[in-house]
Amino acid sequence: MEFRHLGRSGLKISEIAYGNWLTHGSQVEEDAAHACVRAALDEGITTFDTADVYAGTRAEAVLGRALEGQRREGLEIFTKVYWPTGPGQNDRGLSRKHIMESIDASLRRLQTDYVDLYQAHRFDYETPLEETLRAFDDVVRQGKALYIGVSEWRAEEIAQALKIADEMGFDRIISSQPQYSMLWRVIEEEVVPLSEKEGIGQIVWSPIAQGVLTGKYKPGQPPPAGSRATDDKGGSDMVSRWLQDDVLTRVQQLEPIAADLGLSMAQLAVAWVLQNPNVSAAIVGASRPEQVRDNVKAAGVTLDADVMKRIDDVIAPVVTRDPGKTASPRKRP
Known about the structure:
Belongs to the shaker potassium channel beta subunit family. The chain has helices at about 30-40, 60-65, 95-110, 130-140, 155-170, 190-200, 235-240, 245-250, 255-260, 265-275, 290-295, 305-315; strands spanning about 5, 10-15, 15-20, 45-50, 75-80, 115-120, 145-150, 175, 200-205, 280-285. The chain is an alpha/beta fold.
């Protein structure tokens, strides 16, 4: 496993991170989830990403049990706050009330005294940003989180938060967690340049485009049984935008490139996002241990300029770069 600094912070994280959005507590049974976490640990992954909302808070609890007995100092545990976790009007958003209550609940479920990174899961347009940042700063001062990050914030939102933090003496954001893949490159225009300037690292999710870049979805054919496209627990709506014959045909043309490098399609996709120097880690999920072992082989892979050009020549006509300037579809994770 290779390790990278998270932005310009001193925190080092495994460049392959394990995430449990659509698996723990939802898509797979707990024994299988524990087996995937053990496989991740065996392969050298030390960074684990979750969120309070995943599987209605169950994902955090499953991850906490799966990591029980591990040396805490050897792990980097990330979670998030924003989406509703209860029926009340204050069970959502980035108000001080919700942040302070949510961090305590997350720590209980994760069975830990602190998280390494606490992330704002979306931007809250209904709460003053100063209130949100002060609450996050207090979470850090209380030792409940070591660093603060954001997920799916626009460049202008990140810039506004950095300005306020500097003016008020708060801890600065050190990470951004956006969607990023060969097919979805929205962050490249504005988020990445700002982040490079300000010392923010990207922890990217869906580097395999919800499984589409594995090549398992074929043009003109129905999705394989049991795949994310047939999942009714949150995955099918995310993957559906890629299930168009022009996209799938282009993806199939990546297979010879992967084969020439001795990589699987998934490994090529994960390695591709890691070529971006602003990416600190790529999050991979898994419902089976062998998926973890396959994806982790992308760590340390270097794709030379000729390979990157071959990939672009194939995939460029179907790449999404600027869907209305939004960081990503306003959905989970």
